[in-house]
C-alpha cells in the first residue's frame, strides 16, 4: 500500500537506471526542448514582448515555459508549489532548467551524439516489458491519462540516452576512488555505517480525515488494530491481514507516512496522514535496529559512492561552464539567483532516484 510500487506508470520509470540522481536532473531539463538550434550571441539584452528568456537566437515565451512546467507535472510528477515565495523560486529554476536543456542538447549535437530511433524503440520495449510485464494496453492508458504521445516518449528516451552518453564522455577521465580514501570516509562517518532500521507496520486506510480520527478513537478504546483494519480499511490487499504491511525501511515508504511511522513508539497508533491512496492510521508492531557494518562490508559501496561524487563534481562544473557560455537573457521575474549554477531540486522529478525501491 505505502511501499513504493508500480501501481501506476510514472514517467520517471522511463529514465534508464544506473546513473546518479544528479544525472537524472540533466535528463529532466532536456524535456520537450526545441529542435536543433545554434547558440549565437544576441544583439542586446532586450527581450521581445511576451518573452521570458532568450538563449542566443532562441526565445521562449511565458506560454512555452508554462507548457514545460505542465509537461514536467504530467511526465515526472513535478508539482509547482502553491506558497508564493516557493512558487517564485520554482518559476526561476524552471526558466534556468529550460536554458540548460537547450545547451545540453546543443552540446550533445556538437559532439555528434546521435541516438537512432531504433535504439529508443528498443529501450521503450524493454521498459514496458520490465515495468508493465509487456502490457502495451497499460502503456497506452498511461499515455492517455498523461495526455502525451508515444512520439514524445520516444523523443525523451532519445534525449535521455544522448544525455547519458554525454555524461559518460565528460566523466571518462575521472579515476576511481582508492581504498585509502574509502577508509578515511569510513572513519569520519563510522557512526553512520550501519544497516538501516526496519519496522514492521500495520496500516488502515479510509477515505476522509474524519474517518481516520474515528479509527484513532476506536483504537483509543482498546479495540484490536487487526479487527479495526478488517472492518474499516479500504486497502483490500492488507485488510485481511490485519493491515500488515510487512517489515520495511523508512526509504521504502511514502515520505509523509514514513516520517510518522519512524517517529512513533512501538504499539502506539500514529496518524492520521494523507497520501494519494487516502487517510491513514498506522501502528508499529516491531522495531529492528540497524547493526554496525565493518569497513570490509562497506568498502565497495564507499569506493563507488566517492567515485560517483568525483564524477558529480566534474559534471556539475561542466554544466556550469555550459550555462556561463550560453549567453542567456532572462526577464526580471524569471531571473535565477545564480544563472550559472545547476538548477535546484525544485524542478527535480519526485521519485526519480535510481535507487528507489519498488515491490
Automatic annotation (TrEMBL):
* Chemical reaction(s) catalysed: [protein]-peptidylproline (omega=180) = [protein]-peptidylproline (omega=0)
Database matches in Pfam families: Rotamase_2, SurA_N_3
**What are the UniProt keywords, alphabetically?**
Isomerase, Membrane, Rotamase, Signal, Transmembrane, Transmembrane helix
Positions of the UniProt region annotated as Disordered:
331-359
InterPro entries named among the record's database cross-references: PPIase_dom_sf, PPIase_PpiC, PPIase_PpiC_CS, PrsA_foldase, Trigger_fact/SurA_dom_sf
Q: What is its EC number?
A: 5.2.1.8
Q: Which domain of life is it from?
A: Bacteria
The answer to whether keyword GTP-binding applies is no
Chain ranges passing through the membrane: 20-39
Q: Which residues form the PpiC domain?
A: 196-286
Which class of enzymes does this protein belong to?
A: isomerase
**Compositional bias of kind Acidic residues:** 347-359
Name under which the protein is recorded: peptidylprolyl isomerase
> Species name for this entry?
Nocardioides dubius
Amino acid at each position: 500500500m505505502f511501499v513504493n510500487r508500480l501501481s501506476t506508470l510514472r514517467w520517471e520509470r522511463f529514465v534508464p537506471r544506473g546513473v546518479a540522481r544528479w544525472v537524472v536532473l540533466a535528463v529532466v531539463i532536456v524535456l520537450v526542448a526545441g529542435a536543433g538550434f545554434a547558440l549565437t550571441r544576441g544583439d542586446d539584452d532586450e527581450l521581445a514582448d511576451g518573452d521570458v528568456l532568450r538563449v542566443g537566437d532562441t526565445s521562449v515565451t511565458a506560454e512555452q515555459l508554462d507548457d514545460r512546467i505542465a509537461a514536467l507535472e504530467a511526465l515526472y510528477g513535478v508539482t509547482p508549489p502553491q506558497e508564493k515565495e516557493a512558487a517564485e523560486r520554482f518559476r526561476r529554476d524552471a526558466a534556468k532548467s529550460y536554458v540548460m536543456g537547450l545547451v545540453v542538447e546543443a552540446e550533445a549535437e556538437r559532439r555528434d551524439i546521435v541516438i537512432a530511433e531504433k535504439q529508443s524503440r528498443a529501450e521503450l520495449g524493454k521498459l514496458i516489458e520490465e515495468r508493465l510485464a509487456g502490457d502495451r494496453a497499460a502503456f497506452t492508458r498511461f499515455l492517455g491519462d498523461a495526455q502525451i504521445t508515444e512520439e514524445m516518449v520516444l523523443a525523451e528516451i532519445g534525449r535521455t540516452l544522448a544525455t547519458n552518453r554525454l555524461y559518460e564522455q565528460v566523466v571518462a577521465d575521472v579515476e576511481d576512488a582508492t581504498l585509502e580514501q574509502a577508509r578515511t570516509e569510513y572513519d569520519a562517518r563510522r557512526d553512520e555505517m550501519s544497516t538501516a532500521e526496519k519496522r514492521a507496520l500495520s496500516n488502515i486506510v479510509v477515505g476522509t480525515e474524519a474517518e481516520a480520527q474515528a479509527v484513532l478513537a476506536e483504537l483509543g478504546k482498546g479495540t484490536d488494530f487487526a479487527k479495526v483494519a478488517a472492518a474499516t480499511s479500504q486497502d483490500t490487499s492488507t485488510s485481511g491481514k490485519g493491515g500488515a504491511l510487512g517489515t520495511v525501511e523508512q526509504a521504502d515508504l511514502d515520505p509523509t507516512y514514513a516520517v510518522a511511522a519512524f517517529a512513533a513508539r512501538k504499539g502506539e497508533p500514529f496518524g492520521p496522514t494523507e497520501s494519494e491512496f487516502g487517510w491513514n492510521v498506522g501502528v508499529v508492531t516491531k522495531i529492528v535496529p540497524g547493526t554496525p557494518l565493518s569497513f570490509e562490508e562497506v568498502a565497495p559501496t564507499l569506493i563507488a559512492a566517492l567515485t560517483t561524487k568525483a564524477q558529480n563534481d566534474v559534471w556539475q562544473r561542466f554544466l556550469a561552464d555550459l550555462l556561463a557560455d550560453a549567453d542567456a537573457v532572462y526577464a526580471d521575474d524569471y531571473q535565477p539567483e545564480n544563472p550559472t549554477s545547476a538548477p535546484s531540486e525544485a524542478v527535480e522529478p519526485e521519485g526519480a532516484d535510481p535507487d528507489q525501491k519498488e515491490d
